[in-house]
Design a protein that fits this description.
Blueprint (H helix, E strand, L loop, with lengths): L7 H10 L5 H13 L3 H10 L5 H13 L3 H10 L5 H13 L3 H8 L2
Helix pairs in contact: 1-2, 2-3, 2-4, 3-4, 4-5, 4-6, 5-6, 6-7
Length: 110
């Protein structure tokens, strides 16, 4: 909610004050940082997480594709322990957006 209002500092404060610090809470923060375009905070938080699930990896992948950093996106995708439909679609869409239809089709065919 705070991210949608543009108050990321309050969102961070609420999470720090919360008695619930699980991967789901951190994933909300990752997506919040992605939503406001704060990629540095997104990457910092992701790197500091000791426990991640597939939902944790997808915002980072999306951030890389959003800014045309396809080599980073591909490295992230390759290092993901688990991928889901969002992961695959995100990488394929990133290659399409970057103008690399051949790579997108190659991934689609896997």
């Amino acid at each position: 909610m705070y991210f949608k209002c543009g108050d990321k500092e309050m969102a961070i404060s609420v999470l720090k004050a919360s008695s619930v610090n699980d991967v789901a809470s951190w994933n909300v923060m990752l997506n919040g940082f992605l939503g406001v375009g704060d990629i540095q905070s997104l990457l910092h938080l992701f790197r500091s997480m000791s426990v991640r699930d597939v939902i944790s990896w997808n915002p980072v992948l999306t951030a890389y594709t959003k800014f045309g950093r396809m080599e980073d996106a591909q490295r992230m995708f390759d290092s993901m322990p688990t991928r889901n439909l969002v992961s695959w679609n995100g990488l394929i869409a990133g290659y399409v957006k970057a103008g690399d239809a051949d790579k997108a089709l190659e991934l689609f065919s896997v």
